[in-house]
Design goal:
This protein has 16 helices and eleven strands. With 462 residues, it is of the alpha+beta class. The chain has a single domain, classed as Cytochrome P450 (Cytochrome p450), CATH 1.10.630.10. The strands form four sheets. A four-stranded mixed sheet has the order 1-2-7-4. Strand 1 and strand 2 form a beta hairpin. Helix 6 runs antiparallel to helix 7, helix 10 packs across helix 12 and helix 12 runs parallel beside helix 16.
Length: 462
C-alpha cells in the first residue's frame, strides 16, 4: 500500500471539507469552488456517502469506478446537473448525448482523431508554440500571466484546426462568447441541484445565452459555406467531420450536429489544454530541478527550433511533467452520474436516482493509491505502470473517454517543450495561484512567472 513520505514543500492544493455541509452551505461553497465540497475523507477512503437534498456517493475505489464508467456505464448516465450546465452551449453533442444518439456520433467522430490525422495537425501546434514564445520574449523582463498566454496559444490551435484560417468565423466573438458562458455556466445554482429543466431561466446566464445564440448562427453559416466550398489543403476538423459517416447507419451529421460537436471540441480543446499547460509551467517554476532536467531534454532534442509532432516521442520527461500536472490539477476535477437502477458499490447500497460522483481531484491524491500524493513527482510516471488504470483519469475512461486525448497530449508536449527550451521560468513572490474549480480547475489569480530568455536553445546547458 502506498505510504506518506512527504518531507518537502508541496505545490498549492484545495482545502477539502472536514465536516458535513447542509444544502445551503454546499451551494455557497460550490459556487465559490466546487472542489471544496469534497470530503477530505475521500483521499483516504474508497467511498464516502451522504445526503445534500438527494443521496450521493463519492468514489475513489478504482474497481467501483470501473463499474460505473465501463462495466455498467449504461446504468450511470451523466447527471442532470451536468447536462443543465452545458446543453445551452453545446446541445446534444458527444459530451451530452446518451444511448444510441451518443453512439452514432462517437462512431462518426472517432476516425477524425486517428493518430494520422492528429499528427497531420501538429504543424498548427508548432506555429502556435512559436507565437507564444515570441510574445513571452517580448514581455521580458516583466512578469507574464502564463494562464492568459496558454489560453491564447491553445485557442489559436483549436481555431486553426477547426475552421482553418479561411476567415469564415470571427475568432474574437467565438472566444468571448465561450469564455463568458464558461465563467457563468459553471456556477451551480439551486435550480441545477434541484434538477429543474434547462429552459427554466438561471439568474446570470441570460446575457451569455444571447451571445451563444449569435455565435451558433455564425457557426452554422461557416459550416454551410465550407460544405459548399469543400476542403483546401490539409483537412481540418470541420472537413473531416463533414466527410464523416457512421459506419453502421451511414448517417451523417447535419449542420446543427456539426456545430454542436465543433463547439464541444473548441471548448474542450482549448480550455483544458491551456489549463494543463499553465499548471505545468507553475510546477516547473515551483521545482527548479525538474525544470532544469526538462530544459536539458528539450534543448538536446530541439536545438533552436520549436517542437514538432515527430519530436513528441523523444521528450519523455516533458510528457511526464504534463501527466503529473494532469494528476495534481485535472481540468475536470469531478464528474457525476445519476444511478438508473439499484446497485452496490464498495458494499454501499445505491438507489435509483442517487448521484454517484467520481471526485477525480481526490482520486488523484488518494493516499491508498499514490505515494506522497500531494507532491510534484513526475518520475512516478516513469517505467512500468502497474497502477490500476482507473486510479488516474485525466481524460475519463470507458466508452466516454475523451475523444481528443491524444490531440491534447501532443499539443501540450509541443508547446511545453518549446517554452522550456527557450526560457527559465521563476515564480513571482506573492502571486501563488489558487486552484478553483468552477466548470474546470483553474489557477485563480493567474500563473504569474518571470521568463528569462536563454541563448536560443542551440545546445544543452553544461
Amino acid at each position: 500500500m502506498p505510504h506518506q513520505t512527504a518531507t518537502r514543500q508541496q505545490p498549492v492544493r484545495v482545502a477539502l471539507a472536514t465536516r458535513p455541509m447542509n444544502v445551503f452551505r454546499s451551494m455557497t461553497e460550490a459556487r465559490r469552488n466546487v472542489l471544496s465540497i469534497i470530503p477530505e475523507l475521500s483521499t483516504r477512503a474508497p467511498i464516502v456517502s451522504g445526503r445534500t437534498g438527494r443521496r450521493w456517493h463519492m468514489l475513489t475505489d478504482p474497481g467501483a469506478i470501473r463499474r460505473v464508467l465501463l462495466e455498467n456505464e449504461a446504468q450511470y448516465p451523466k447527471s442532470v446537473v451536468t447536462k443543465n450546465l452545458l446543453r445551452p452551449a453545446i446541445g446534444e453533442s458527444l459530451f451530452i448525448a446518451e444511448g444510441a444518439h451518443w453512439r452514432w456520433q462517437r462512431r462518426t467522430a472517432a476516425p477524425v482523431f486517428s493518430h494520422r490525422n492528429v499528427l497531420n495537425l501538429a504543424p498548427v501546434m508548432t506555429r502556435a508554440a512559436e507565437r507564444a514564445a515570441a510574445r513571452i520574449a517580448a514581455a521580458h523582463p516583466r512578469a507574464v500571466n502564463m494562464l492568459d498566454e496558454m489560453v491564447t496559444a491553445t485557442f489559436d490551435v483549436i481555431a486553426d484546426v477547426t475552421f482553418s484560417a479561411d476567415g469564415s468565423f470571427d475568432r474574437a466573438k467565438v472566444h468571448a462568447a465561450i469564455d463568458g458562458y464558461i465563467a457563468e455556466a459553471g456556477r451551480i445554482t439551486l435550480f441545477d441541484v434541484l434538477g429543474l429543466p434547462d429552459w427554466v431561466p438561471r439568474p446570470g446566464r441570460i446575457a451569455t445565452t444571447d451571445a451563444m445564440a449569435q455565435m451558433k448562427r455564425e457557426a452554422d453559416k461557416a459550416i454551410e459555406a465550407r460544405a459548399a466550398r469543400g476542403p483546401e489543403g490539409v483537412p481540418d476538423l470541420l472537413d473531416l467531420l463533414l466527410a464523416g459517416e457512421d459506419p453502421k447507419t451511414h448517417r451523417r451529421m447535419n449542420t446543427a450536429e456539426l456545430r454542436d460537436n465543433l463547439l464541444t471540441f473548441i471548448v474542450a480543446g482549448h480550455e483544458t489544454t491551456a489549463l494543463t499547460l499553465a499548471w505545468a509551467l507553475y510546477l516547473c517554476a515551483f521545482d527548479a530541478d525538474v525544470q532544469a532536467g526538462a530544459r536539458a531534454e528539450a534543448r538536446a532534442v530541439l536545438g533552436g527550433r520549436a517542437a514538432t509532432g515527430a519530436d513528441v516521442a523523444r521528450l519523455p520527461l516533458v510528457r511526464r511533467i504534463v501527466e503529473e500536472a494532469l494528476r495534481l490539477y485535472p481540468p475536470a476535477g469531478m464528474v457525476s452520474r445519476t444511478a438508473r437502477a439499484a446497485d452496490v458499490l464498495c458494499g454501499t447500497e445505491v438507489r435509483p436516482g442517487d448521484t454517484v460522483i467520481v471526485p477525480i481531484y481526490a482520486l488523484h491524491r488518494n493516499h491508498m493509491l499514490w505515494d506522497d500524493p500531494d507532491s510534484f513527482r513526475p518520475d512516478r510516471f516513469a517505467g512500468r505502470r502497474d497502477r490500476d488504470r482507473f486510479a488516474y483519469l485525466p481524460f475519463g475512461d470507458g466508452p466516454r473517454i475523451c475523444i481528443g486525448a491524444s490531440f491534447a497530449m501532443q499539443e501540450a508536449i509541443v508547446i511545453l517543450a518549446t517554452l522550456l527550451a527557450r526560457f527559465r521560468f521563476s515564480p513571482v513572490t506573492g502571486r501563488t495561484p489558487e486552484p478553483v474549480m468552477i466548470l474546470t480547475l483553474r489557477p485563480q489569480g493567474g500563473v504569474w512567472l518571470t521568463a528569462e530568455p536563454l541563448d536560443g536553445g542551440a545546445a544543452p546547458a553544461a
